[in-house]
Design a protein that fits this description.
This protein is an alpha/beta fold and 278 residues long. It is 48% helix and 11% strand. It contains 11 helices and 5 strands; from the N terminus they run αβαβααααβαααββαα. The protein is globular and about 70 Å long.
Length: 278
């Protein structure tokens, strides 16, 4: 559900980094053996003939007007370059944050159970019993956010709560994934969405909310990709009136990474963002 992400100065660099990470790891049961295709991106990528979808559900009430304007401008760029741009619907997108909150906590509780201070992880000194060693090592080794997720995850996984929370979240995750599959089966090749509802907040405003609130506020556009297991890439497209970057996100079907990177490279060249800030 949570996967490594690549930060790079340009799409070509991101492709190089991604290629080094690509392939099956026999020590990682979540990796896959499916072939992605060549990541040698064309020098002059084309988008003529592509079908780009604009999800209606991403036009949130709280989204800033400057983000909407950038979204519309880039949609027009695709259309003017010969791509077909249509509106699509992903009705279960709005449940992705709640679904993620449950499944991520369960995943954290399960994965971090091994960090007991004996076989794995940080170990404190001076404890007189195994039980106190476990408790002190985990308390000292994990910060408040991790401890909170472990606590919530173990609560969701209790026998009396397993069906109500964990299995229900898995069913919702399947509905989110099915939404994307249905859209891609109609011939849509990529989706174009905002990345966040606004530009980067000032630090003094950001710390007024805890991590869970910030996730619900800032990650609403990006979480559905994690829920459905599809590739996504963010490309900065312009600066706001405050001089802060606004990015847009491209999403594609599973294992369309090479084509997605090529389309992102076209967008990068079309908006000329680097020349805007240099």
């Amino acid at each position: 559900m949570d996967v490594p992400g690549v930060h790079a100065r340009c799409v070509d660099d991101a492709a190089v980094m991604f290629e080094t990470m690509l392939g099956q790891d026999h020590l990682d049961s979540t990796s896959v053996s499916d072939k992605i295709g060549s990541l040698d991106l064309p020098n002059e990528p084309l988008v003529s003939g592509l079908h780009i979808g604009i999800p209606e559900e991403y036009n949130f009430e709280t989204i800033k007007r400057e983000v909407i304007a950038a979204w519309e401008k880039v949609a027009d760029l695709f259309s003017n370059a010969g791509a077909k741009v249509t509106r699509v619907s992903l009705p279960h997108t709005r449940y992705s944050i709640a679904c993620y909150s449950v499944l991520n906590s369960c995943e954290v509780a399960s994965n971090f159970a091994r960090y007991d201070g004996i076989e794995y992880g940080h170990r404190v000194d001076g404890e007189k019993s195994t039980e106190s060693l476990y408790a002190a090592s985990r308390h000292e080794g994990f910060n408040a956010i991790v401890r909170g997720r472990i606590l919530a995850g173990n609560y969701f996984l209790l026998r009396r709560n397993y069906e109500k929370y964990f299995l229900h979240a898995l069913r919702v995750r399947r509905l989110i994934s099915n939404d994307f599959e249905k859209v891609f089966r109609t011939g849509v090749q990529f989706l174009l969405t905002p990345v966040t509802i606004g530009t980067a907040p000032l630090y003094k405003n950001f710390i007024k909310k805890d991590g869970r609130e910030q996730t619900a506020l800032q990650d609403i556009c990006t979480q559905p990709a994690n829920m459905s297991g599809i590739p996504a890439i963010t490309v900065p497209v312009c600066l706001s009136s405050e001089g802060l970057p606004i990015g847009l996100q491209l999403l594609g079907p599973q294992f369309s990474d090479a084509e997605l990177l090529s389309t992102a490279k076209w967008l990068e060249r079309a908006v000329q963002f680097r020349s805007t800030i240099l």
